Amino acid sequence: MRTFHSPLQRRHAPEKELHNGAFVPFAEHPGRIDAILEALGPAEAPRDHGEEPILRIHPRAYVDFLKSAFGEWRAAGRPGDAGAYVWPVVGRRPLTLDRVDARLGQYSYDASTPIAEGTWEGSYWSVQSALSGLDAVLGGEAAAFALCRPPGHHAGADYMGGYCYLNAAAVAAEVAIAAGRRRVAILDIDYHHGNGTQDIFLDRGDVFFASIHADPKTDYPFYWGHADERGIGAGEGATLNLPLPRGTAFPAFETALERALTAIAGFDAELLVCSFGADTFVGDPISFFALETADYAPIARRIAGLGLPTLVVMEGGYAVEALGANVRSVLSGF
Ligand code: SP5
Ligand code: ZN
To answer: Which UniProt keywords apply (predicted)?
Structure first.
């Protein structure tokens, strides 16, 4: 399968994240890329599509914030990576604020998504990899793999979180619509709910969002991904959340997958974007499902059974020693 990735994505390399009360090494590190490329072989360099596709999803003010925040942080004399320490109550009121600390809080929702020197560049090229994979699929490939990193599915239109800054899957889905695909489905099978993607398309009837993930009652991102979130307005019914308990292994995952695929098949999509996270793996250090490496191939075969042109976008997966094999397994099924 054609695979797209830019070495510039490595420029995003924060040092630490806040986890359970302590600063610990950043889990979403460039070594993840090394592990995947070692298993797959070299990837194709993405074409530069510029900022225009990104701005279809993300407002200019947020994009400018991502570009300038690290420089402002350094100019304020701060060491290390930029991160918020105060957040507004969500949507409290629109304010234009000067200090980088205020802006970091306005454009984020957690403390595990620091901005490092290369965060904008890495995020930008991660989206370009997704757009180049989309080009391949729009050009007739049955499936393509965008080796995105940093991941994207926790990023909303104007917020970062969950190691995500720009939402590559959402940008790709929106560009597919702009290219004339009338309806697009997004299937998110990362361990964590894709709250950013859901938020972006919540009120849209032309993009179906289905997610299988750990129950947010016990797992990040807590405030999204509950089964009663089904879309609003024109998007009523075009969001499907299938939360599963910690410990879920292949049989229960497969049952949820069949439900998601039945819903997607009924939506009459012309293209599928699959947000794939390998953090459903039994050995993942920050997650608690129990999928085995060999399970990813039949999961992909069932998804491929939809018969839709499919862009696979990399999201999470932190068991680095198994990551290459897990990605190879899932790609073997498409
Ligand atoms: C894309 C994705 O999978 N994002 C996951 C974000 C989860 N963040 C909350 C859990 C943070 C755990 N950090 C553990 C670090 C250990 N070194
Ligand atoms: Zn995840």
So the answer is: Hydrolase, Metal-binding, Zinc
Q: Is 192 in the pocket of ligand 1 (CB under 6 A)?
A: yes
| CA 222 to ligand 2 centroid distance, Å | 13
Paired with 242 in beta bridges are 212
List alpha helices for 41-167, DSSP H.
Answer: 52-55, 60-75, 100-106, 119-138
Nearest CA to ligand 1 atom 15: 27
Instruction: Scan for tokens 């790609």, then name that residue.
Output: 331
Reduce the DSSP state of residue 293 to 3 states and report it.
helix
List, in order of start, the domains of the chain with CATH numbers: 3-17+27-48+119-332 (3.40.800.20)
Whether 143 and 312 have beta carbons less than 8 Å apart is answered as: yes
* Ligand 1 close to Cβ of residue 197 (< 6 A): no
Q: Which ligand is nearest to the CA of 32?
A: 1
The C-alpha angle 138, 139, 145, rounded to 5 degrees, equals 70
The ipTM, to two decimals, is 0.94
Query: Distance between CA atoms of 304 and 34, rounded to whole angstroms?
Result: 27
Q: What is the pLDDT of residues 268-302, one digit of tens each?
A: 999 999 999 999 999 999 999 999 999 999 999 99
